[in-house]
Specification:
The complex is a heterodimer of chains A (about 170) and B (about 450).
Chain A (H helix, E strand, L loop, with lengths): L1 H17 L36 H6 L5 E3 L9 H16 L4 E7 L6 H21 L7 E7 L10 H7 L1 E7 L1
Parallel strand pairs in A: 2-3
Antiparallel strand pairs in A: 1-4, 2-4
Helix pairs in contact in A: 3-4
Chain B lengths: L1 H10 L5 E3 L28 E4 L10 E2 L2 E2 H18 L3 E4 L17 H6 L4 E9 L5 E9 L4 E10 L4 H17 L7 E9 L6 E8 L6 E2 L7 E6 L5 E6 L6 E6 L4 E4 L6 E7 L5 E8 L2 E8 L6 E2 L7 E6 L5 E6 L6 E6 L6 E2 L6 E7 L6 E7 L1 E7 L7 E2 L6 E6 L5 E7 L7 E7 L5 E4 L4 E10 L2
Parallel strand pairs in B: 2-5, 2-6
Antiparallel strand pairs in B: 1-8, 3-4, 6-7, 7-8, 9-10, 9-32, 10-11, 12-13, 13-14, 14-15, 16-17, 17-18, 18-19, 20-21, 21-22, 22-23, 24-25, 25-26, 26-27, 28-29, 29-30, 30-31
Helix pairs in contact in B: 2-4
The chains are: A alpha+beta (about 170), B mainly beta (about 450).
């Protein structure tokens, strides 16, 4: 209960800081057990602004959490640089946050090779962020190979979406 | 619980399946060059006709595996299925075949079987002994010559009745083809279910024909690429347990697992050495994947490859002196062979497309692989890279694993599209005989174990 209260207070403060004009309801619906600050009432997407330093805030204040790669490639192109630059900027602003970068591959590679390829991609994103001043000690990587596609089709458009590195803020 | 008990029994000194002494002296032992034989390399399938009547029992007895009379029919069924799956034989029976009285098992009515246009005849019997243990006699006859070609006797616990059938089928297959046995073996694989973006993957084990299936992990963590140890008591595999993708070794008898490689961001692609002492695997540091070996009981890994490319998929030659692996050091995935200490690395694949997942045959003569270019296909080549032959033609075949005798390959076949479905298939070296292995759910990453003792 103490945890929930703290979260609510923080959420209220976040709303105040963000200058949100929306009136908070008098009584809030009961939260389902422990409340994740990132999804606490008042910080959802509908409310417009998330609590600074949270995963939700990260997603709202960057170009994208995902960079894409060419077939069998792991180089950081101009689009990826723009995305990672925005991530690096946010990460510099919140130096106590930690992130994990997930590397993924499309299904048109063998399982083991794709694990290595996803690892290459995650590390390419990590190295870029580190070069932009984010301490490497704050960044972990994990490769899922082709095990966790985001697009389900077996076509070029789906594969292009699945060749990706995704940055996730750990709360 | 029953299977666990059987496994424990196997792990101890007492063999679960004992070959009984010769039942009666053979009247004549035909020379190996006489009588029926099948050439497994002949691509014009010969379809040798084999009749397999239900095996009679001297006395119907209820056992934990069922009544011996019913078992005699079930065992004949299993033998017929094993032989049919080779694509080399045309077995018939036990359905639609005349029942054989007990007294006729060792004295076939050759006149009758010639009339049924059989070339070979398999007869046998089932008897129950103390504690429900079963004795299965197995005889192969050349119908035209009226001679016995081979005989085997097996004593098994009731839960192992299928093993007696597989051993009998192995004896027939070996006698007729001159090839090593493979039916009495098991397969470890990844059982799959769920949507394509959230597949639940569990370690599972089954007999090579899909029977006696059971799960080994609960599906909470993704598991990939399980590989049997040469004595099939341990399984090396990759798991995402605690969000730390690494390698584990599972002890089948104990039902326990332990972490093999510690303090690493990514370890994968495990494979045992032929003597079971080492496990080859791939470890990635700072995005660079190289092949290492580690004692199968743990310890400090020794690095075998260096350089910036992705080196993975290591597989030992049967004598343990060499390793085949894949590397993209040339720009695309290709196959390489090196000495077991990492020296003398040389490329062996030069065809169009990419080559991956090499597996050295237990006979040493061939290397199986996945070739990508258009589809994903299973193929074989010599360890020098010559004689490449593609065995399958599909959208998503991957990851071949050899049968114990080096004649058949099991692999994953992924489906195109949003289903994420995957099945396990088997193909023989002619490429003519392929079939799906029935699994409870979907399946991938099969690893075929050794012939069981």
């Amino acid at each position: 209960m103490a945890k929930l209260k703290t979260a609510l207070i923080l959420a209220t403060m976040a709303v105040a800081v963000a200058g949100c004009q929306k009136k908070r309801p008098e009584t809030l619906p009961p939260g389902p057990g422990a409340v994740d600050p990132g999804t606490a009432p008042g910080t959802g997407d509908n409310m417009g602004a998330a609590q600074p330093g949270t995963a939700a805030h990260f997603k709202q204040n960057i170009v994208s959490d995902t960079v894409l790669f060419g077939l069998d490639q792991y180089d950081i192109d101009a689009d990826a640089r723009r995305i990672l630059d925005s991530q690096a900027q946010w990460l510099t602003q919140f130096p106590n946050t930690r992130i994990t970068v997930e590397g993924h591959a499309d299904e048109r590679g063998t399982r083991e090779y794709n694990l290595a390829l996803g690892d290459r991609r995650a590390n390419a994103a990590k190295n870029y962020l580190a070069a932009r001043g984010v301490s490497a000690g704050r960044i972990t990587t994990i490769s899922y190979g082709k095990e966790r596609p985001i697009a389900l089709g077996s076509d070029e458009a789906s594969w292009a979406q699945n060749r990706r590195a995704v940055t996730i803020v750990l709360n | 619980m029953k299977s666990a008990a059987a496994l424990l029994l196997l792990a101890t000194a007492a063999p679960a399946l004992a070959q009984t002494p010769p039942l009666i002296p053979a009247p004549t032992q035909p020379g190996q060059d006489q009588g029926l034989s099948v050439d497994v390399t002949d691509e014009s399938a010969q379809d040798l006709s084999i009749l397999i009547p239900a095996m009679p029992t001297s006395q119907p007895v209820d056992t934990p595996a069922g009544n011996t009379q019913a078992l005699g029919r079930q065992i004949a069924d299993v033998i017929a299925a094993d032989l049919r799956n080779t694509g080399l034989f045309k077995p018939a029976g036990p359905d639609g075949i005349r029942a054989v009285p007990f007294g006729e098992v060792r004295a076939p009515d050759f006149g009758y079987w010639r009339g049924a246009s059989a070339q070979a005849l398999v007869q046998g019997y089932v008897q129950a002994g103390a504690g429900g243990r079963l004795t299965v006699g197995c005889y192969l006859y050349d119908v035209a010559l009226g001679t016995e070609l081979t005989r085997q006797g097996f004593e098994v616990g009731p839960s192992d009745w299928r093993r007696a059938a597989h051993k009998c089928a192995d004896a027939i297959y070996t006698r007729l083809t001159g090839e090593g046995p493979y039916f009495d073996s098991r397969v470890i694989y990844v059982s799959e279910t769920g949507p394509k973006n959230r597949r639940i993957k569990r370690l599972a084990i089954m007999d090579q024909d899909g029977a006696n299936h059971r799960f080994l992990t609960n599906g909470q963590s993704i598991v990939l690429t399980p590989r049997f140890s040469p004595d099939e008591r341990r399984i090396a595999y990759m798991s995402y347990q605690n969000d730390k993708p690494s390698l584990y070794v599972y002890d089948l008898a104990a039902g326990t697992q332990r972490l093999l490689v510690t303090d690493v961001s990514l370890a994968f692609a495990p494979r045992f050495s032929p003597d079971g002492r080492w496990i080859l695997f791939t470890m990635s540091t700072a995005g660079n994947a190289d092949i290492y070996r580690i004692s199968s009981s743990g310890g400090t890994p020794q690095r075998l490859t260096t350089g910036p490319g992705i080196d993975t998929g290591g597989s030992y030659s049967p004598d343990g002196s060499r390793i085949v692996f894949e590397s993209d050091r040339s720009g695309t995935q290709q196959l390489y062979v090196m000495n077991a200490d990492g020296s003398n690395q040389r490329r062996i694949s030069f065809g169009s497309g990419r080559y991956a997942t090499p597996a050295w045959s237990p006979r040493g003569d061939l290397i199986a692989f996945t070739r990508m270019g258009g589809g994903f296909r299973i193929g074989v080549m010599s360890p020098h890279g010559s004689g490449e032959k593609l065995l399958t033609d599909s959208w998503g075949d991957e990851g071949p694993s050899w049968s114990p005798n080096g004649r058949v390959l099991m692999y994953s076949r992924g489906a195109q599209g949003s289903s994420g479905k995957s099945d396990i298939w088997a193909v023989d070296l002619t490429g003519k005989t392929s079939r799906r292995i029935a699994t409870q759910l979907d399946g991938s990453d099969p690893s075929w174990g050794p012939i069981r003792p």
